[in-house]
């Protein structure tokens, strides 16, 4: 005798509840199993935290790392690592930070790949600092060894595909890690990562001389000139701004103002946060000039607290991974500096800031010959694209440049056609199918 509608509905609801309970119990078992396995890892402290709730579970871990991997007896420090867990059979996306950990959120790629996410803070930044900073151990080789240790530990648990990624300095760090440990992961995606070949790479100046339209470049320079010509009126505004924000400038107010006016063109093209229509003309008053200047190029870059916070970056830039300088020749009428201004004022007191070009040249040669399955993402207008990776004849890697893109360029910012090509590249390299719609929706 056929079941009536009422009994069928009750049966359907009962089966649905049983299914939910079964999934929940399996998830609970998997989480408990994961935690027990994580606790077995060497040199790790573990705590389950809220984190990004899109993951099934989220953990904060502290790995004990040698200050010098070649001399473990020198001492150790704790390195902060975050783990967003979906499932043991999903790929692992490693977010390699070039600085501190900015966010606990799932990144673009972990969403695209429906992957677990491991986020590694860079040595000497924020929470991952030795008690005593011996600066010579802050280099790309030691940092890569940190990341290698974390990845190898977690690979004992997660057996699917491994992908590394990073943004800006994190993108650089992703490249360096692959240079030293090419087999740690299957594929890497480096976003907006410069590869500077000199302490102050002159290609930055060349980029600023030709980026965008001639009209745009003229407006940028005219604004800088207007700021220099109104320096006396801008200085009181800067002092008021500094007092309000508790800024202190070790180089003094006048040089801080000069530096920020020179920084303006770099920042304008790097971020694209303002467009040419917003640039005040040369007849604008001091208030309008200053408001636009701080919107495009904030003064915290030159504040003592900001410098101390970012000192590990400045040290690495000036000794190994390269930086840029401020070109003073175009403004010689307004400034009295004998040569281009560099960032030497950011170095820790008494620390040698001699640049060693050897590492970057070696990485550059490797990228053009032996590197494989690294995908590079750049924005055309981004100032850091001046020193982007050049693959030459290496067809084992791929590079995509978004027209008129900024330093904020991500895969989702490309046209649907280019997104499809990027996804196809990742599918071929990883030998998996990717739901491209998940990228377009997020």
TrEMBL record:
Provide this UniProt record's keywords sorted from A to Z: Hydrolase, Protease, Signal
Has the keyword rRNA processing been applied to this entry? no
One Pfam family from the record: Peptidase_S37
GO biological process terms on file: proteolysis
Its protein name is Peptidase
Q: Which InterPro entries match?
A: AB_hydrolase_fold, Peptidase_S37
One molecular function GO term is:
dipeptidyl-peptidase activity
């Amino acid at each position: 005798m056929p079941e009536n509608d009422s009994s069928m509905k009750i049966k359907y609801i009962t089966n649905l509840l049983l299914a939910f309970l079964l999934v929940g119990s399996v998830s609970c078992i998997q989480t408990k199993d994961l935690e027990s396995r994580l606790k077995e890892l060497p040199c790790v402290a573990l705590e389950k935290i809220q984190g990004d709730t899109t993951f099934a579970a989220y953990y904060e871990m502290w790995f004990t790392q040698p200050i010098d991997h070649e001399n473990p007896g020198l001492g150790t420090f704790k390195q902060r690592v975050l783990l967003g867990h979906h499932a043991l059979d999903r790929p692992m996306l490693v977010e390699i930070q070039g600085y501190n950990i900015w966010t606990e959120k799932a990144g673009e790629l972990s969403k695209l790949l429906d992957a677990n996410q491991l986020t590694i803070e860079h040595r000497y930044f924020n929470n991952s600092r030795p008690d005593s900073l011996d600066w010579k151990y802050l280099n790309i080789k030691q940092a890569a060894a940190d990341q290698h240790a974390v990845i190898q530990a977690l690979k004992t648990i997660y057996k699917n595909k491994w992908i590394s990624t990073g943004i800006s300095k994190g993108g650089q760090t992703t490249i360096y890690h692959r240079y030293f440990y090419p087999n740690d992961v299957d594929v890497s995606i480096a976003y907006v990562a410069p590869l500077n070949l000199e302490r102050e790479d002159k290609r930055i100046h060349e980029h600023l001389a030709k980026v965008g339209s001639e009209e745009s470049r003229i407006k940028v320079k005219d604004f800088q000139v207007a700021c220099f010509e109104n320096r006396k009126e801008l200085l009181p505004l800067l002092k008021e701004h500094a007092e309000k924000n508790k800024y202190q400038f070790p180089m003094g107010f006048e040089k801080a103002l000069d530096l920020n006016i020179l920084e303006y063109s770099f920042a304008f093209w790097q971020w694209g946060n303002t467009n040419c229509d917003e640039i005040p003309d040369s007849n604008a008053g001091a208030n309008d000039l200053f408001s636009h200047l701080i919107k495009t190029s904030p003064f915290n870059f030159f504040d003592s607290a900001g410098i101390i916070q970012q000192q590990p970056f400045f040290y690495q830039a000036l000794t190994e991974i390269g930086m840029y300088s401020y070109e003073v020749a175009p403004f010689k009428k307004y400034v009295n500096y004998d040569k281009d201004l560099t960032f030497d004022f950011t170095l820790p007191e008494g620390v040698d800031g001699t640049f060693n070009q050897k590492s970057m040249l070696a990485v550059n040669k490797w990228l053009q010959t032996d590197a494989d399955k690294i995908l590079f993402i750049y924005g055309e207008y981004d100032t850091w694209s001046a020193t982007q990776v050049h693959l030459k004849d290496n067809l084992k890697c791929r590079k995509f440049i978004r027209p008129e893109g900024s330093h904020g360029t991500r895969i989702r910012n490309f046209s649907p056609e280019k997104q499809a090509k990027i996804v196809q590249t990742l599918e071929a390299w990883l030998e998996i199918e990717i739901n491209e719609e998940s990228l377009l929706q997020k």
